[in-house]
Structure formats: structure tokens, C-alpha cells
Automatic annotation (TrEMBL):
Protein name (record): Ribosome biogenesis protein NEP1, putative
Cross-referenced InterPro entries: Alpha/beta_knot_MTases, Rbsml_bgen_MeTrfase_EMG1/NEP1, tRNA_m1G_MTases_N
SUPFAM superfamilies hit by this protein: alpha/beta knot
Family: Belongs to the class IV-like SAM-binding methyltransferase superfamily. RNA methyltransferase NEP1 family.
Amino acid sequence: MSASKEDVKRRQVIVILEQAALETVKTSKGYQLLNCDDHKGIHKKLNREASQSRPDILHQELMALLDSPLNKAGYLKATKGVLVEVSSQMRVPRTYKRFAGLMVQLLHTLKIRSSDGNHTLLNVIKNPVTKHLPANCKKYALTRTGTLVNPWEWVESLPKDEPVVFIFGAMAHGHISKENCNYLDDTISISEYPMSGAQAICRLLNGFERHWGIL
């Protein structure tokens, strides 16, 4: 049996992308999104590891999220503490260059609206992120060090009609834990093998799509 649209609406899936690299720098070409490929000299001046500036990971994860048939809410939390609400109506630019330009615009204007002006697609909001989550919802971080579960079977075991929050890391190194993400309730792993954040997102959301009969 397939879930009705009303059932799916009640079973809200919220995704948080933690520790995303979102920072602008002023260059001779204007403001740009700081990244490891184009700004090695800037990283050297700042005495910072260039490998930490990977906004391309966020780009990949947002495409995986918003290209999914599953309709969901989302938030992204940058390493600099910026919290952004992401509308499910947002269409992520296909190329990194256009994505980077959009993120620079967002960080300077704090809001991105649809071309017709009727919808807010990206919106910088106040921390903490827990203030914007449903009361008493369970919050799971996906990490290699979490309890290994079969995503298709595990999704079926979740309580019905209750929203659930999933936290994915959007950084190049390290993993999400209670030490760097104090609001999570539990950690899970959905594969015995290493995988990118974008692949983990696709794998988990596919479990919900299969369970709810979303084609």
C-alpha cells in the first residue's frame, strides 16, 4: 500500500546539514565563496587549512536532498554559526559556480526569494536550530561511528505520525558527535563502508520513499 499525501505530510522529515563551509572573502573579482581550489593564497594568509573550505560538499548534499521525490524541510548550519532555513521549493543551481554566487548573495542579503517574489527559498534565521524544530522530535546524526542499521528496515520501525530529524555533516573531515552537536539524541550508520554525505542522504531518503510508496 502507498501512503496518502496527507499521511506523508504528517510524517515530516527534517534534515540538518551541520558544519557547512560558508564564508565569503573579498578578492580582486569581488566577493567570492571561500573554497580550497581558488583561494589557497588567502588560506595561507589566514593560517588556515584549505581543506576545511569545501562548500562543494554542501552543494552536493543540497542537490541530493532537494532532487529527492520526498518533500522535506531542511536547515543548514555553517561553521561560522550562520543558520539557514531551506525551502523544499528551492531548486539548487546545477553548477558549482552558480551555487557559489547564490550563497554569496544569501550571506550578504540574508534572504533569497523566488523569481516571482512569492516564496522565500533561503532564509538566514536565528540560532539555536532546536528553536525551529518540532517539540520532542527525535534527532539522529548519521555517522560511521553510529549504530549500524539497515536503512529500509530501520525506517519502518520509526513511530508513525511523528516528525523525525536527521543530521548530516557537510564538512570534509571528522564526523558529527555529541561533542560538536549537543542537541542530537542518537547516532546511526547506514553502511559498513565509507560514503559521501550526498550518497548517505540518497540512501536514507530512499528508505522513506520505499516505505511510503513514493515513486
